């Protein structure tokens, strides 16, 4: 990524055909190319800090840059946060849904599951499919299905399965990893201990119970209360967030935050991320880096302009909601004009709850949706909806990509050798076919 300074000394992204893409060298092996910095690209950027681009984007056309919070700006530690979610879910299964107490002694392997898998609710299977929706690997609990079992179950029908709800569930968020692992454990437990789970519970009902237990943890605030008490235990520190936001604001672009989390939790997490490192609920210094903050957005429904969701303004000090008319505060009964108490340094940033993208466009005075770049982690809830429905430009945060690209680079010699062997195989097969034709 290269930077230019215009006459007003504003930092703009000049060439979005980012050279952090994998470039192909003369010998056919892909090599990572160093992406340039304001100093001229002397140092190679860390793999986890690189940007990969699948189409060009001229940042001069972008007037507003938005962010999701959870797993985008706030990267949670899987070894602690996912474990917390896992333990909370088990506690709800035992105390609220009648599952055996011995589940409380189970442990969680946070490295086992990955995003992109599919849960077969009825059969108790976890599937890994290719881009064409062919099942490549299938596990029943933690037992891998044989090729014959896999083909007999998923490849022996005249009409292909769509692998959609209600019979299947996609593990498409990092929040889903703990519940998928727990479901596999329950499948194994049910197979090996018939009669130990609640009566009339099959695999599908068991998955539904896991989802219900997860929802209970979110509804009663079990997870977020623990994170709020000790953010550094559950959230990775990232000192590059504040410089990034400052750079965007110095370039005179609007910045906004749209998160499904409510204001009290959002304030604690953003306080932690923006260097203040304080749990003081009355500290709103981080608001200076945004023009608009929308909490409780209920994405992906937020991206539908025809949605009738109401927009409320949040009073930061008290957390109270104020009725608004498309972002304009409405006077209460007996008052001629509404008043919102905000600290002076935060006058430019307003905090809201709910609403739709229609409200956001009006608040930021956005005339064209193509002028917005949105950064999120959920490929369906953040990226596809905002791109297809609105036409926003999008950036997807994929933490797993770091390990994938690193592995590709480490195995570059093996991949090159494999390509050569495949080429030799194709050449030999071609010769064999020609000889057979000549004999016939």
From TrEMBL:
The keyword Metal-binding appears for this protein: yes
GO molecular function: 5'-nucleotidase activity; metal ion binding
Residues the entry annotates as binding GMP: 70
Binding site for Mg(2+): 68, 377
Cofactor binding, per record: Binds 1 Mg(2+) ion per subunit.
Keyword list, A-Z: Hydrolase, Magnesium, Metal-binding
Listed cofactors: Mg(2+)
Positions annotated as active site in the UniProt record: 68, 70
Domain of life: Eukaryota
The keyword Metal-binding belongs to this UniProt entry's keyword annotation: yes
Family listed: Belongs to the 5'(3')-deoxyribonucleotidase family.
Alphabetized NCBIfam families for the sequence: HAD-IG-Ncltidse
Descriptive protein name: Uncharacterized protein
Species whose genome carries this gene: Populus deltoides (Eastern poplar)
């Amino acid at each position: 990524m290269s930077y230019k300074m215009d006459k007003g000394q504003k930092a703009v992204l000049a060439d979005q055909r980012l050279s952090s893409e994998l470039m192909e060298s003369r010998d056919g092996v892909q090599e990572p190319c160093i992406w340039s910095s304001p100093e001229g690209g002397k140092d190679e950027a860390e793999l986890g800090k690189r940007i990969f681009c699948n189409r060009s984007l001229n940042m001069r056309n972008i007037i507003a840059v938005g962010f999701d919070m959870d797993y985008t700006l706030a990267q949670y530690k899987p070894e602690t946060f996912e474990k917390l979610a896992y333990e909370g879910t088990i506690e709800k299964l035992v105390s609220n849904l009648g599952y055996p107490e011995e589940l409380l002694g189970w442990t969680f392997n946070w490295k086992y599951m990955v995003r992109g898998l599919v849960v077969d609710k009825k059969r108790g299977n976890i599937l890994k499919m290719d881009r064409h929706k062919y099942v490549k690997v299938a596990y029943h609990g933690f037992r891998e299905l044989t090729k014959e079992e896999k083909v007999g179950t998923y490849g022996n029908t005249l009409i292909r399965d769509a692998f959609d709800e209600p019979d299947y569930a996609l593990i498409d968020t990092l929040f889903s990893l703990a519940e998928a692992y727990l479901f596999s454990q329950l499948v194994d437990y049910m197979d090996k201990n018939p009669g130990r789970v609640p009566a009339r519970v099959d695999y599908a009902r068991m998955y539904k119970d896991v989802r219900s237990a997860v929802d209970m943890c979110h509804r009663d605030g079990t997870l977020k209360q623990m994170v709020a008490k000790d953010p550094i235990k559950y959230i990775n520190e990232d000192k590059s967030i504040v410089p990034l936001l400052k750079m965007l604001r110095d370039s005179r672009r609007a910045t906004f935050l749209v998160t499904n989390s409510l204001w009290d939790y959002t304030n604690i997490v953003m306080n932690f991320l923006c260097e203040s490192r304080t749990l003081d609920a009355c500290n709103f210094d981080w608001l200076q880096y945004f023009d608009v903050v929308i909490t409780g957005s209920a994405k992906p429904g937020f991206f539908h302009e025809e949605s009738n969701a109401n927009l409320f303004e949040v009073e930061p000090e008290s957390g109270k909601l104020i009725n608004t008319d498309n972002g304009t505060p409405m006077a209460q009964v007996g008052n001629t004009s509404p008043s919102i108490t905000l600290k002076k340094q935060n006058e430019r940033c307003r905090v809201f709850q709910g609403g739709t993208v229609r409200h956001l466009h009006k608040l930021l005075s956005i005339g064209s949706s193509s002028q917005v770049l949105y950064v999120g982690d959920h490929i369906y809830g953040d990226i596809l909806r905002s791109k297809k429905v609105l036409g926003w430009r999008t950036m997807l945060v994929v933490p797993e990509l770091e390990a994938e690209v690193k592995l590709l680079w480490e195995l570059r010699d093996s991949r090159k050798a494999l390509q050569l062997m495949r080429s030799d195989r194709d050449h030999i097969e071609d010769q064999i076919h020609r000889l057979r034709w000549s004999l016939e």
